[in-house]
Amino acid sequence: MKVLVSTAYLPPVEYISLFSGTDQILIESEENYLKQSYRNRCYILSAHGPQILTVPVFLGSLHKTHIKDIRIDYSKRWQQVHLGALTASYNASPYFQFYFSEFEKIISAKNNFLIDLNTKLTEAILKMLRMKIEVAFTAEYQAEGSAENDYRYKISPKKESSYTCKKYLQVFDSGEGFVNRLSIVDLIFNTGPEAASYL
């Protein structure tokens, strides 16, 4: 079985949960870039509640730009900001020291294209979760809903979701109980080798 998904930066737990029982992830590379989506942002849990981390990108002036052609803007200090935020949020988590260096290595490297950065992170996450799944890319764009297991536009920070992650102990207590819809890094840093069992 394979699932069709958009590219995503340190994707939410819900996104990774789609991969359970699949043989192949097909990442959409031909769609036009969508702003304010998980394609270049994620949510982590800080001491002050959920925090957005956004990878700044260059956009083609008024032309629609394919996601595979979206370049990362390195004039902003986003790498230091993201790594600092991850450290501040998860340094006290049980498994931070086991996994952080891999995220740091990938985020610190200079990937020109957003899709390359996201794919390297997704492959590292799959390895951490011990999920042996082939990662491939679409060769042409298919209309929404025309492919089987099409989740490209179903998971969005702007859409309500019925998905609920099995609760685990989070570093920061928001005062409102368990915080859902966070990046997979929250689950990995807090539960380590058990992370896959929460998907």
How does this model look, in words?
This protein is of the alpha/beta class and about 200 residues long. The chain has one domain. About 25% of the residues lie in helices and about 15% in strands. The protein contains five helices and seven strands; from the N terminus they run E-H-E-E-E-E-E-H-H-H-E-H. The strands form three sheets. A three-stranded parallel beta sheet has the order 1-2-7, with no helix packed on it. A two-stranded antiparallel ribbon has the order 3-4. Strands 5-6 form a two-stranded antiparallel ribbon. Helix 2 packs antiparallel against helix 3 and helix 3 runs antiparallel to helix 4. It is globular. The chain starts with a strand and ends in an 8-residue tail after the last helix. The model has no long low-confidence stretch (mean pLDDT about 95).
Write the layout of secondary structure elements.
Layout: E1 2-5, H1 13-17, E2 24-27, E3 41-46, E4 49-54, E5 57-58, E6 71-72, H2 78-90, H3 96-108, H4 114-128, E7 134-137, H5 184-191
Parallel strand pairs: 1-2, 2-7
Antiparallel strand pairs: 3-4, 5-6
Structural shape: globular
Number of domains: 1
Question: For the largest beta sheet, what order do the strands appear in spatially?
Answer: 1-2-7
What is the terminal-to-terminal distance? 17 Å
Count the helices. How many? 5
Residues in helices, as a percent range: 25-40%
SS strand fraction = 5-15%
The rounded Rg comes to: 16 Å
Encode the helix/strand succession as letters: EHEEEEEHHHEH
Biggest sheet features: 3 strands, parallel
Low-pLDDT parts are none
Question: What is the gist of this entry?
Answer:
The mean pLDDT is 94. By secondary structure, the chain is α/β, with parallel strands linked by helices.
